[in-house]
Design a protein that fits this description.
By secondary structure, the protein is an alpha/beta fold. Helix content is 41%, strand content 15%. It binds pyridoxal-5'-phosphate.
């Protein structure tokens, strides 16, 4: 908050951006055609960012699902600076460790109520999932069942961008680049009721999707299946909140076949869904979890995998687990994560999300339900989604396929002062856990007026207007 505002030469930065910087998950030619990316220069308060043209944006995405405690936390800057002065770096390879790494592992274990008492550190969510893949396969090998290699995941899951992350994930466009997934990773249907299950009762659909896992296990042979991995609520896939029946049935199936249950808590962890962990919200007890994003609220890169006693007791009989990173347990990142967790606890942000802001968001979203472009609104804690459709009754999408309306409404939101994401035709939001009621109202108001602005453009682009009208009286 006290940082001096610098006078950047924005035109020059944009020129250099195009000349030298390759952005994440992007069409490089498109960025060149746009004359460079939008340059975010500063955070003005907990939930507001500013770009190089002086536009102020309410950050409905908490950065990229990560700035849980909001921007401008001097405490986090201070703890990083003092740890850097005391000991900026040391590793965990040489039978050595640093105090922040030990204390953070202890704190994470405590937050799992000691059900997952052992913690391995990495620097990103993708790496956490790489660690999981290696640890799971090694666990089964040490246990004398090396044929248990197959990991089951879901279509449209997101587990990161490394080779293992993309492979575990279920994004078709990512699989198409670089010959992925790697072998022995299978994908089953996702519990996306609005997109794929509207002919079913939601709870029935949840059970159907869970049973698709069991069918896959039986097809492969249970003796070859190592683990099932899933995000309690899919984030990057479009804030897909499974029916309540889904996860308990998934857990039952995993237990029945002796398969490890793994939750990717990279978005759901650290209060996002109104509990410390998404798996608490959906009511399961995993054997391993991945966490990242909210662990440090994005102030520094750090991730972790928390592991059960049973798994570690087996690993202890297997000699060296030859896995680890230069920055595993980085002391500065660990110190910042510890302070971040302290802030979440001190300000009661988990409780506030569960009992106050989460329900407030759910209620505010109801205002959009009657909009002619809105097929469904849904939320859990401070994860929200709005489905854009051309026909409320049929759920048909604009242009006859997904992906036309979402980017248009997203761009309108950004132009109107709100940073949100459009995933296919789903507008998603994931604001900092410190967002106020007034800011939630503003977020919903901006989405509403952006939908209003986009509607005539979207309708004009539609061909069979006659058809659309003919369908309406059926409602
Ligand atoms: C963001 C994300 C990842 C990947 O994290 P990175 O830090 O980008 O590598 C993995 N899993 C989930 C659920 C995520 O949302």
């Amino acid at each position: 908050m006290t940082a001096p505002r610098r006078n950047y030469d924005i035109a020059e930065l944009r020129r250099l951006d195009v000349a030298h910087h390759l952005p994440a998950q992007q069409d490089y030619q498109l960025i060149e055609d746009l004359g460079g990316s939008r340059i975010i220069t500063a955070a003005l308060d907990r939930c507001t960012i500013q770009d190089g043209d002086g536009n102020q944006l309410l950050d409905g995405m908490a950065g990229l699902w990560c700035v849980n405690v909001g921007y401008g936390r001097d405490e986090l800057a201070d703890v990083a600076a003092s740890q850097m002065r005391e000991l900026p770096y040391y590793n965990t390879f040489f039978k050595t460790v640093t105090p922040p790494a030990v204390l953070l592992a202890t704190k994470i274990a405590e937050l799992t109520e000691n059900r997952l008492p052992h913690v391995f550190f990495n620097t990103s969510g993708s790496e956490a999932n790489d660690t999981i893949l290696r640890m799971v396969r090694h666990y089964w090998a040490v246990k004398g069942q090396p044929e248990r290699k197959v990991m089951i995941s879901r279509h449209n899951a997101y587990h990161g961008s490394t080779v293992a992350g993309v492979s575990l994930g279920g994004m078709k466009a990512m699989h198409a680049q670089g010959d992925l997934p790697i072998p022995d990773i299978h994908h089953v249907r996702q519990p996306y009721w609005f997109g794929e299950g509207r002919e079913h009762d939601p709870e029935e659909f949840g059970l159907l999707c869970a049973r698709a896992i069991e069918e896959e296990i039986e097809r492969i042979g249970p003796e070859r299946v190592a683990a099932f991995i899933g995000e309690p609520i899919q984030g990057a896939g479009g804030v897909i909140i499974p029916p309540a029946s889904y996860w308990p049935e998934v857990e039952r199936i995993c237990r029945k076949h002796g398969i490890l249950l793994i939750c990717d808590e990279v978005i759901c962890g650290f209060g996002r869904t109104g509990n410390w962990w998404g798996h608490q919200t959906v009511g399961v007890k995993p054997d391993m979890i991945a966490m990242a994003k909210g662990l440090s609220s994005g102030y520094l890169p750090i991730s972790a995998v928390a592991v059960s006693e049973e798994i570690v007791s087996v690993l202890k009989t297997g000699g060296d687990f030859v896995h680890g990173f230069t920055y595993s347990g980085h002391p500065v990142a660990a110190a910042v994560a510890l302070k971040n967790i302290e802030i979440i606890e001190r300000e009661g942000l988990v409780e506030r999300t569960r009992t106050d802001t989460g329900p407030y968001l759910a209620q505010a979203l109801q205002r959009l339900k009657g909009h002619p472009l809105v097929g469904e609104v849904r939320s859990c804690g401070l994860l929200g989604a709005v489905e854009i459709v051309s026909n409320k009754q049929t759920g048909a999408r604009f242009g006859g396929k997904e992906g036309t309306a979402g980017p248009m409404v997203r761009d309108a939101c950004i132009a109107n002062g709100l940073m949100v994401r459009g995933i296919r035709d789903t507008i998603v939001m994931c604001p900092p856990l410190v967002i106020t009621h007034e800011q939630i109202d503003r977020m919903i108001d901006i989405i509403q007026c952006s939908l209003d602005e986009a509607e005539p453009l979207l309708r004009a682009g539609e061909e069979p207007a006659v058809h659309e009208e003919a369908d309406l009286p059926l409602s």
